[in-house]
């Protein structure tokens, strides 16, 4: 077997296996991104930031299905099968590039989006409604207090109507009876703001997704090259063509 054919077949068979593994990995990444945003949905009003995750999950489903197609087409050296596999790889490659572009765009818009929404949600805090639960969850999980910092609470109706105190979820130890939310107990309070921490978290999630997508996009690129090599070499053998250097 020609060395180029053997190498290209090996690459495509490996790529077929990667399709299944990558499908599982991308499905996990997409679900992780959506779950991360869902946990803080009250603060992320721009749902377009979920487009990269939706693309990732869509790509993962396609990869599961067509991994088998690539394996069969490679072993049989089917020109039709390989052409179809090439088209699949190219479409997935384009989708991954699109996901990278969207991720890059929305990674820079996260802070702007949060800046518009977090103040509104914190202002609605009353200790009972859905916004309250969202704020409490945010402050507990990220160990933060207020939008910019703990002093941001001084501009809310909660602060003025509760003897100038912040919610108990600002406490470092939420089960402690010593922490009452008064601003003269700074040693018992988380003083860092939630906005920067949430921005860093969401940007980190998108950054992780972008690295995964980039790695698989590079593999797809070499896969397309391998399909071209096998198709050309197979066509040469069937037509009886011999290269000049033979």
From TrEMBL:
SUPFAM superfamilies: Tetraspanin (SSF48652). It is found in: Membrane. One of its GO terms (cellular component) is plasma membrane. The chain crosses the membrane at residues 51-75, 82-106, 205-232. The keyword Membrane applies. It comes from the Eukaryota. Pfam families: Tetraspanin (PF00335). It is a multi-pass membrane protein. InterPro entries: Tetraspanin/Peripherin, Tetraspanin_animals, Tetraspanin_EC2_sf. Belongs to the tetraspanin (TM4SF) family. This is Tetraspanin.
